[in-house]
Amino acid sequence: MATNWGSLLQDKQQLEELARQAVDRALAEGVLLRTSQEPTSSEVVSYAPFTLFPSLVPSALLEQAYAVQMDFNLLVDAVSQNAAFLEQTLSSTIKQDDFTARLFDIHKQVLKEGIAQTVFLGLNRSDYMFQRSA
Q1: Each residue's pLDDT tens digit in the chain (134 positions)?
Q2: DSSP secondary-structure letter at 108?
Q3: CA 103 to CA 80: how far, in whole Å?
Q4: What are the residue ranges spanned by the domains of the chain?
Q5: Would you identify the CATH topology of the domain 5-47?
Q6: What pTM was estimated for this model as a whole?
Q7: Is the dihedral of CA 8, 13, 14, 15 positive or negative?
C-alpha cells in the first residue's frame, strides 16, 4: 500500500502529533537510553533516537554498505570466537549491565562444556547512518 507522505509532512500540527505519539510508544515499548546527565541511573532515561519516516538512500551509499558487508561479517565472526578479546572488551559492560553479564555467563559455560557444533550460523545486523549537509 503506497502512502503519500507529502501531505503529512506539510501539516505541521499533524506531524507534531505523530511525533508525540511515536515518542510515547517508544517510551512504552522500552526503547530507552540513560541520559548523559544521569548515566548510571535507571530511573532517569530518555527515548532512543529514531525516525518517523523511511529515508531514501542514495545508490552510491547503498553500494558502499554492500561493499563492506562481507568484511564486517568476517570481523563479527572472528570477534565472536575470541573469548579473551570478548571478555576484555566487555568487562566494564558486564559489571554494569545484568543482561550482558548473563549472556557472557552463558558464553563461558558453553566454552567450559565444549562447543559441540561444527557449523555455525551468523545472523548479523549492521545499521548504517549517513549525514547530509543542511
Answers
A1: 456 667 777 888 988 999 999 999 998 998 888 888 888 888 888 988 888 888 788 899 999 999 999 999 999 999 998 999 999 999 999 999 999 999 999 999 999 999 888 888 888 888 887 776 65
A2: H
A3: 13
A4: 5-47, 56-134
A5: Dna Ligase; domain 1 (3.30.1490)
A6: 0.56
A7: positive
